[in-house]
Automatic annotation (TrEMBL):
NCBIfam families: CoxB. Residues 92-225 form the Cytochrome oxidase subunit II copper A binding domain. It is a multi-pass membrane protein. It catalyses: 4 Fe(II)-[cytochrome c] + O2 + 8 H(+)(in) = 4 Fe(III)-[cytochrome c] + 2 H2O + 4 H(+)(out). This is Cytochrome c oxidase subunit 2. Signal peptide: none annotated. The keyword Cell inner membrane does not apply. It holds the Pfam family COX2. GO terms for biological process: ATP synthesis coupled electron transport. It is found in: Mitochondrion inner membrane. Its main location: mitochondrion. Its cofactor is Cu cation.
């Protein structure tokens, strides 16, 4: 989860999020280089008289400052497309979990099991135990096996919501009448927090998401205890 005054992203928990972090750093590097160049040019234009004939009118330099930005754009677009297609891929999921957004809680359905469904409400601040996180803890966590491909199906029962887990690089809109799909792979166990990321109403801030990623053996024990 995020810590106070955090500026960057949360640590990556899925391979996709690692890719996204790399891409973010790569793009930001280009932005910094362009910004410093522009800043340098602005300051030199303000402090000098540009009277050199070969910079006032020159085909060569115009060719360069047309082609160079095009190359830079390609250098951003290609890795971006690569990650886009990686995120779209679903290879043979081991488990499917359907989540529905409601005003204002999430409900989960493990469709591979006969009757494994539950609602997940936020724990009110007055009921929190010491060490629990305000506005983030829920009464029923989504327990999932780690290191496995899980297919998340996301939809909504009333208004637009968005099911988001930053450390897994997931954010999928929950749209009434439409079933969205995303892949979830966690490379390590732990608790992962997220919040509804679509302004959905007055209690929008009070429908958090908590994933509990555990080894497969523990997941089996949990699912058996839930049936
Ligand atoms: Cu919502």
């Amino acid at each position: 989860m995020a810590y106070p005054f955090q500026l960057g992203f949360q640590d990556a928990t899925s391979p996709i999020m690692e890719e996204l972090l790399h891409f973010h750093d790569h793009t930001l590097m280009i932005v910094f280089l362009i910004s410093s160049l522009v800043l340098y040019i602005i300051s030199s234009m303000l402090t000098t008289k540009l009277t050199h004939t070969s910079t006032m009118d020159a085909q060569e330099v115009e060719t360069i400052w047309t082609i160079l930005p095009a190359i830079i754009l390609i250098l951003i677009a290609l890795p971006s497309l690569r990650i886009l297609y990686m995120m779209d891929e679903i290879n043979n999921p081991s488990l499917t979990v359907k989540t529905m957004g409601h005003q204002w809680y999430w409900s989960y359905e493990y469709t591979d099991y006969e009757d494994l469904t539950f609602d997940s409400y936020m724990i009110p601040t007055s009921d929190l135990k010491p060490g629990e996180l305000r506005l983030l803890e829920v009464d029923n966590r989504v327990v999932l096996p780690m290191e496995m491909t899980i297919r998340m199906l996301i939809s909504s029962e009333d208004v637009l919501h968005s099911w988001a887990i930053p450390s897994l690089g997931l954010k999928t809109d929950a749209i009434p009448g439409r079933l969205n799909q995303t892949t979830l792979v966690a490379s390590r166990p732990g608790l992962y927090y997220g919040q509804c990321s679509e302004i959905c109403g007055s209690n929008h801030s009070f429908m958090p998401i908590v994933l509990e990623l555990v080894p497969l053996k523990h997941f089996e024990e949990w699912s058996a205890s839930m049936l």
